[in-house]
Structures are given as C-alpha cells and as structure tokens.
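Can you give me the bound-state structure? Components:
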Amino acid sequence: MLPGNIERFVRDFSRLPGIGRKTSERLSFYILSQPSEFSKELSEAIVRLKEETRLCSQCGNITDSDPCPICNDSSREMNVICVVETAIDIYYIEETGSFKGLYHVLGGLISPLNGVTPDDLELNSLLKRVTGLGIKEVVVALSSTTEGDATALYIREMLESKGVMTTLPARGIPVGTDIQYAGKGSLAQALRNREELK
Amino acid sequence: MLPGNIERFVRDFSRLPGIGRKTSERLSFYILSQPSEFSKELSEAIVRLKEETRLCSQCGNITDSDPCPICNDSSREMNVICVVETAIDIYYIEETGSFKGLYHVLGGLISPLNGVTPDDLELNSLLKRVTGLGIKEVVVALSSTTEGDATALYIREMLESKGVMTTLPARGIPVGTDIQYAGKGSLAQALRNREELK
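Here's the bound-state model for the whole set.
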C-alpha cells in the first residue's frame, strides 16, 4: 500500500493519456527524490498552462496574446486560410514549415451521428473571415475520415459561390513507408494521383 | 513555436524520467482540452506528494504518518529486518507479499569512488535497531552490484559479533526467462545454488 498522497498522485496522473499506473508510480518516486523546488515548478507549470492560455479571437489558435502571433504576423500569406479541427493541429502543421498562410479552428467535425451540426462549428466565422479578408484559397486540413470528408465537402459548397478555391492536402503513401504497409486506401489514392518523376 | 506557457510546461515535464518532448507536448494539449478542475487537481497532487510526505523516524520509509504503517503493524515479524537502499524499494518488496518483517532504509550504498563512506549511511541506526529490537536476521536486499555487495559484506561484519544472521535474497534465473537469455552471472549463481525438485 502506498501512502495516501502518493496514491492520490498516482491515481490523478494515471488519467493522462499514455501514462499508466507503473509510469505514474515511477514519476512519484522520482519527484519525491528531487528538491521541493522541482515539484513546485511542475505544479506551477500546470496551473499556468491552463489559466494563462487563451484562444485567439480571430482564428481560435491557443495563444498567450490576442490576436495570436500567426494572425499578427504580416509576413504571412494573407489570402490563404488553412481550416483545422483543433488548435493543436496548427502546431503540427507549423512544425513542417510548409504552410505560410493563416489558420481557422473549426472546433470539431460535422457528425450527425454524434449530434454535431454545422451550427455547432466555427463555420459562420470562417465565411466572414474569408469574405472580409479577401481569401483566395481555403486548405481543408481535416482528418481523413468520413466526418472529415463530409465537413470538407460542406466547406467547399459554402465557399463555391464566393469564388474561393477549396483544396485538400495530398493523400498518398506516407513518407518512409513500404508499399506493402501503406494500406489499401492510401495506395489507391497514391496511384490515382501519381506524379511525373522529373 | 508554442506559446510561452505551453513551452514552459513542455520543458519542465520533459525533465521527468521517461517523458520526452513529444509526450510532454501531447500531455499539454490533453490538459488544455480538459476543464480547469483537472489541471488544478494535478497541480495539487504534485504539491501534496512532496510536501505532505514524511520519512518514518524508525525505518526511513516514505509515509504520511510517523511511525509508518509497517513499523506500527504488530502483526509483522518483529525479529527480522530487511535492509534496502531507498524507501522506494520497500514498496516493490511489499508488492510481492513475500516478506513480513520490518525494513531499514540505508539511503545509499558504500562507494569509495563516489565518496560514500559507511558514516554517510544509516548504518549506526541499523545497529541500534538490531540490538534494541532483538533482531535475529537481517535480509540485505541491495542492488546486485559491486557497491551493493560491498555494503552487504560490511553489514555482515558489523552484525557478526552480535549473533545476528545476515542473509541475501536468492540470485538466479529470473522467473519466465529462457536459459539462453538469463546472462552468464545469473546462470552461474543459479547452477551453484540449484535446489532439489520435490
């Protein structure tokens, strides 16, 4: 039996994704072996993470200033918006360095089975920004699932009459993956969208 | 670039063993997606873990009451003490349910190379407890390393004249391990200490 405070820590930390009971136990023992300063820093980092983090009023990005640094960066392409499901996706796309436009966080995907309708998502605000900013292209970077595809189609229909081009990131064989392991769907898309080797 | 508060969280949590930058990023995104209550609970759990955890004045175990529940448990064998390096070891031994005596935390191993002498460890307090409590057997459950073995020998010499038996946990092939993978040292010990199959 662990002492009450350790047990409480282990129980709370096991609720984090990818942290099981054993890992949580090891973390508690490690924190106990460190000076008090260390546990204070961890504890404060969690509180600040949640309390001092805001959503950008323009794009919905996670930020500590509003508008967020991306919306505020005049060197970015101001006529392309990339639509993502959650703010976290922005971080992963930024890490690639392959997109220089603006973002728009939808906050979910259209899913009639789960009761999520277009009105529950940031679609009206997307339409307003697209017309207001004179956007030429909307890149729909959503999950490659039924819900993601349905939402992408909805966005295309919404923007078609505005003369805005809707694009999707290319689908194909993941970089570094063997043909055998690419999966039927990805392989089919990759073959249909094959490119000339130059 | 992550916002400052997320970056700080990621940096602090990457200092935990087994938590890399990627895991830490995922944890931050997960915590951000949860209600404030969740992050408050985590934060409090860390502070309490460190601040409200004491060491047992008798055996050195991690505890929230002094003496610890093990020292206080009159149903345990009061004439056997198991010597461990750290309080954490007690937890793993207790998990096995195979030891019913008392414990004594040394706080380290004798290691001249690292400047750790017998005086730096809880050896005097061990001697006092052994004579005071009328201990008959001291189980030395230390790491199976040069330092661990040297410390075990030191304890045996210290206790020899007191008529106290010093024992070591058996060494051999780990349960569930193939002969091929047991390792030369373990296999040699296992062969020397072979037991009759009854």
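A couple of observations. DSSP finds seven helices and six strands in chain A. The two ends of chain A are 66 Å apart (CA to CA).
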